[in-house]
Design a protein that fits this description.
- This protein is of the alpha/beta class.
- It has two domains: about 240 residues, 3-Layer(aba) Sandwich (Aspartate Aminotransferase, domain 2); about 100 residues, Aspartate Aminotransferase, domain 1.
- It is about 40% helix and about 15% strand.
- The chain is built from twelve helices and 15 strands.
- It starts with a strand and ends in a 5-residue tail after the last helix.
- Bound molecules: pyridoxal-5'-phosphate (PLP).
- The site of pyridoxal-5'-phosphate (PLP) has 13 residues, from helix 3.
């Protein structure tokens, strides 16, 4: 199978090999050293600055989304939530569960966020803005600089879910005033699912220290304390953290986050250039390098997914809910090459020849 989904994605040999090994005991100096290096490389690749801290939570991306809301916000906050699809909706659901007052800026599927939509809320005494910078469900990437400017003007605490955008699109926490940056292991980091990562500004750390959280596992005060010595309060997904370490070191050796982003960008551009004659249209008004969301014209998108899987050994990414018949997505993250793009394009061309993709 070639995997063009948005996660879990294709992993490199070196990362796979670690998955085969025995899991080492982790309350050791050796493991603490790995964790400290993971923290430092994450800070480097996110532009987080010296005072930032990084927490590795055992759980999928949603665990860190939930932890971020629980630990950095309270009922005294007033949040603006960008809701352009199922991941935006997840933040809305979390605000409801934790009784954080909020207003949602609801976009239609595929819609780009424009400045006017934000400016309507200028001066309305909001305290925080929450966004999934790449709304993976629709492939829309929002303009982080525009969001940053709005946060700066209105003194908003800025929470960014960059789970599918980190290492695919440029991001810089200090320059873009990001307080909480959330990422996950199974997207562009290209290791198995199971770890999500919170990179926290000094402001975010202060909020966590002063918040009263009714949870044991998700109380980040404990994680911050343990992290000082490169440890976690509870048994983490040790192997995945070792795989993250391998991946971060390899990215660092190959020129850092920007080189990885360029590589993903080239794959995305190559793919987009080669679908111009196919009967599909780009669905998103503003795109991320991570994914191309495509709208079919006269055939069920789900059917294309099934045929590619069963007859061509290719996984693309189906959509859920309302978009399931209309949209499929092609990921450009993970261990993919231009040659893999060629295989997919040839398969799509073949579907056209067979009058399936029409
Ligand atoms: C993948 C993803 C998540 C997390 O999903 P999990 O299934 O919990 O890992 C959250 N937000 C975005 C934007 C994502 O792409």
């Amino acid at each position: 199978m070639i995997n063009f989904t948005v996660g879990p994605v294709q992993m490199c040999e070196e990362v796979c090999r670690i998955g085969e090994e025995q899991v080492p005991y982790f309350r050791t100096q050796e493991f603490s050293k790995i964790m400290k290096e993971n923290e430092n490389l994450m800070k480097k690749f996110t532009g987080a600055g010296e005072k930032a801290r990084v927490l590795f939570l055992t759980g999928s991306g949603t665990a860190s989304m939930e932890a971020a809301i629980m630990n950095t916000l309270t009922q005294e906050d007033k949040a603006l939530v960008i809701n352009g699809g199922s991941f935006g909706q997840r933040f809305v659901d979390l605000c409801q569960i934790y009784e954080v007052p909020y207003t949602e800026i609801k976009l239609y599927y595929g819609q780009k966020l424009r400045k006017e939509m934000l400016e309507k809320y200028t001066g309305d005494k909001y305290t925080c803005l929450i966004v999934n910078v790449h709304e993976t469900s629709t492939g829309v990437h929002y303009d982080l600089n525009m969001l940053h400017e709005f946060c700066q003007e209105n003194h908003l605490f800025f929470i960014v879910d960059a789970i599918s955008s980190f290492l695919a699109d440029p991001i810089d926490m200090e320059k873009q005033g990001i307080d909480v940056l959330i990422t996950g292991s199974q997207k562009a980091l290209a290791v198995p699912p199971g770890i999500s990562i919170l990179t926290l500004s000094k402001k975010a750390i202060n909020r966590i220290e002063n918040n009263h959280v009714k949870s044991l596992y998700f109380n980040l005060k404990l994680a911050l304390k343990n992290g000082e010595r490169g440890q976690t309060p509870f048994t983490p997904a040790v192997s995945i953290l070792r795989q993250i370490h391998q991946r971060l070191l390899m990215i660092d050796e190959n020129g850092g986050a920007n080189s990885e982003i360029s590589r993903v960008h080239e794959l995305a551009i190559d793919f987009r250039n080669r679908i111009k004659n196919l009967p599909v249209d780009i669905f998103s008004e503003e795109v991320s390098n991570a994914v191309t969301a495509l709208k079919t014209r006269n055939v069920s998108a789900k059917k294309i997914f099934d045929i590619l899987k069963d007859e061509y050994q290719i996984w693309i990414c189906p959509n859920g809910g309302e978009l399931s018949e209309k949209v499929f997505r092609v990921g450009h993250i993970g261990n993919l090459t231009i040659t893999d793009n060629t295989v997919l394009i040839e398969a799509l061309d073949d579907l056209v020849k067979r009058k399936i993709l029409i």
